[in-house]
């Protein structure tokens, strides 16, 4: 892991590290293998471009075969449908942008990584365990954001730069420019670890111990 | 005879309660989040609760939405004993207020047809907003600050992340109360990280399937920390609240102590053969706002 945010690996989108221990990443990634060494539990912030996507967008792309023109190679996606104010044709300003529950969209993980070169997904609540082998295969990660904390997220989004699938409003494909976006936690890594699976397994064990005393 | 201005006041109050619910976190919820942050044992959990509290400050300071999910709009209408307003006209005014909030603010439109998925773009539609009517007795009217001829609106725009974590189970008498308690805790574990914990747990107990589900949602209106007036039910609330915070799910399901902020059970008498239980989870961003409207048109906003 490099320490200088201005060195070559940072410019290429590889991770660098701040003094407070948060990694810094810039998207889109130039090197599609740049996230392979991230580990569950690491904290990070990101700069650059984040692509907003949602249930209806992915149903359109994968079930209806409507290919987006936006380049998703090396992209980080965020599960969102924002509150926006329309300024003109294809032009919107942010009102409130936050993150939705990821598990509903679990079945699209492979298509996003295999067909489109996506390498990171920001969401809340995690993808399911069957996405872990996909992350391992493609060097992808799932990044946990604090769900519901949309006001803070909105202040970290500088602009809505582009939009596709406008007919699916608000579930369009959105291109956001972000700065200091986070903090995010690596919730699922490319080494088979999911913090969600670990916490849930522990909760089931604890529940089994609680039940007899009810 | 009520004049048109009174329905205009109801419409404006509906619009404002919807928007206020999205921008302000009720004081009881904020207090519970602060206590949870102080008591949290996990470092990730503490940091997550810190972000949640910071987010509330950013939203309330900048008049921004706390969460982007503008929800499925649910209203309770509590009607004073001598309220002269026509409830069909009140319902129409609430619908107009919801539509105006959505278009004029603007707010994200969420209401779609269940088959075609076509969005009405207004957050209203067939049977939406969901409307509940109550006729509180004198003691309850006094507690609510509701004049005998007044009307109280409470808006609970329900986020989908938590509403998708809703459960109903029809137990039978032989299952006993233990099965009910176990079921509630299993629901919290099954929901895991998805409803944005620490959550508020609404439990409906008894009645019929439809009544039980409505009671679970109704339980979310009760301010945190207020127990059921029925001591048998209050004991179950306290027991389940303690047990839920021993599960270790923690803030955003990343591990920690604060799995729930509180738990309320609303109960109804039920059939000799059955014991239905419903669970409705509310995310930490517990959107809840009320307006008490007098017949003079004066409106007092609260939670």
Which stretches of chain A are poorly predicted, pLDDT < 50 over at least 5 residues? 1-12
Along the chain, the helix and strand elements of chain B come as HHHEHEHEHEHEHHEEEE
Q: Order of helices and strands of chain A, N to C?
A: HEEEHEEEHEHEHEEH
In the sheet with the most strands of chain B, the strands line up as: 2-1-3-8-9
Span between termini of chain B: 29 Å
Helix content of chain B: 40-55%
Describe this structure in words.
The complex is a heterodimer of chains A (214) and B (303). With 214 residues, chain A is an alpha/beta fold. Chain A is 24% helix and 31% strand. Chain A is built from six helices and ten strands; from the N terminus they run αβββαβββαβαβαββα. Chain A has a five-stranded mixed β-barrel with strand order 3-4-7-8-10. In chain A, strand 3, helix 2 (55-63) and strand 4 (76-79) form a beta-alpha-beta unit. Mean pLDDT of chain A is 93; it is low at 1-12. With 303 residues, chain B is of the alpha+beta class. Helix content of chain B is 40%, strand content 18%. Chain B is built from nine helices and nine strands. Chain B has helices at residues 4-23, 27-39, 43-62, 87-104, 138-144, 160-163, 176-191, 209-218, 231-244, and strands at 74-79, 130-134, 151-155, 166-171, 199-206, 260-268, 275-282, 289-293, 299-302. In chain B, helix 1 packs across helix 4, helix 2 packs antiparallel against helix 3 and helix 7 packs parallel to helix 9. At the A-B interface, strand 5, helix 5, strand 10 and helix 6 of A face helix 3 and helix 7 of B.
């Amino acid at each position: 892991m490099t320490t200088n945010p201005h060195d070559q690996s940072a410019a290429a989108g590889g991770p660098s590290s701040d003094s407070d221990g948060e990694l810094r990443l810039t998207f889109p990634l130039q090197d599609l293998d740049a996230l392979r060494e991230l580990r569950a539990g690491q904290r990070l912030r990101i700069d650059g471009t984040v692509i907003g996507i949602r249930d209806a967008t992915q149903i359109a792309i994968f079930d209806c075969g409507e290919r987006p023109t936006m380049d998703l190679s090396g992209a980080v996606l965020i599960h969102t449908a924002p509150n926006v104010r329309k300024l003109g044709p294809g032009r919107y300003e942010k009102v409130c942008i936050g993150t939705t529950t990821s598990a509903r969209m679990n079945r699209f993980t492979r298509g996003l990584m295999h067909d489109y070169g996506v390498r990171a997904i920001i969401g809340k609540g995690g993808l399911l365990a069957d996405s872990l082998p996909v992350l391992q295969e493609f060097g992808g990660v799932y990044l946990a954001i604090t769900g519901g904390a949309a006001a803070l997220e909105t202040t970290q989004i500088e602009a809505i730069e582009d939009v596709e699938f406008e007919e699916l409003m608000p579930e369009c494909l959105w291109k956001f420019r972000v700065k200091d976006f986070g903090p995010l936690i690596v919730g699922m890594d490319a080494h088979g670890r999911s913090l969600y699976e670990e916490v849930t397994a522990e909760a089931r064990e604890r529940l089994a111990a609680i039940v007899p005393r009810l | 005879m009520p004049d048109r201005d009174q329905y205009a006041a109801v419409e404006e109050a509906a619009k404002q309660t919807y928007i206020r619910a999205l921008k302000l976190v009720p004081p009881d919820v904020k207090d519970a989040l602060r206590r949870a942050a102080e008591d949290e044992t996990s470092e990730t959990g503490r940091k997550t609760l810190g972000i949640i509290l910071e987010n509330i400050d950013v939203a309330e300071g900048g008049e921004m939405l706390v969460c982007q999910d503008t929800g499925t709009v649910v209203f309770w209408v509590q009607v004073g004993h001598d309220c002269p307003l026509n409830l069909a006209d009140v319902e129409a005014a609430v619908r107009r207020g919801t539509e105006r909030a959505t278009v004029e603010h603007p707010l994200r439109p969420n209401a779609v047809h269940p088959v075609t998925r076509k969005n009405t773009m207004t957050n209203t539609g067939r049977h939406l907003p969901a409307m509940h009517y109550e006729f509180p007795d004198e003691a309850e009217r006094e507690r609510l600050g509701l004049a005998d001829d007044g009307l109280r609106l409470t808006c609970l725009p329900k986020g989908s992340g938590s509403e998708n974590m809703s459960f109903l189970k029809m137990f039978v008498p032989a299952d006993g109360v233990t099965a009910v308690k176990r079921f509630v805790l299993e629901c919290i574990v099954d929901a895991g990280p998805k409803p944005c914990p620490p959550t508020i747990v609404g439990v409906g107990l008894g009645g019929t399937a439809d009544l039980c589900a409505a009671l679970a949602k109704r339980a979310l209106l009760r301010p945190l920390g207020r127990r059921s007036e029925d001591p048998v039910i209050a004991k179950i609330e306290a027991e389940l609240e303690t047990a839920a915070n021993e599960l270790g799910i923690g803030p955003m399901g990343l591990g920690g102590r604060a799995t729930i902020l509180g738990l309320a059970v609303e109960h109804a008498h039920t059939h000799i053969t059955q014991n239905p239980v419903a669970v409705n989870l509310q995310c930490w961003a517990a959107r809840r706002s009320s307006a008490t409207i007098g017949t003079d048109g004066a409106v007092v906003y609260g939670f």
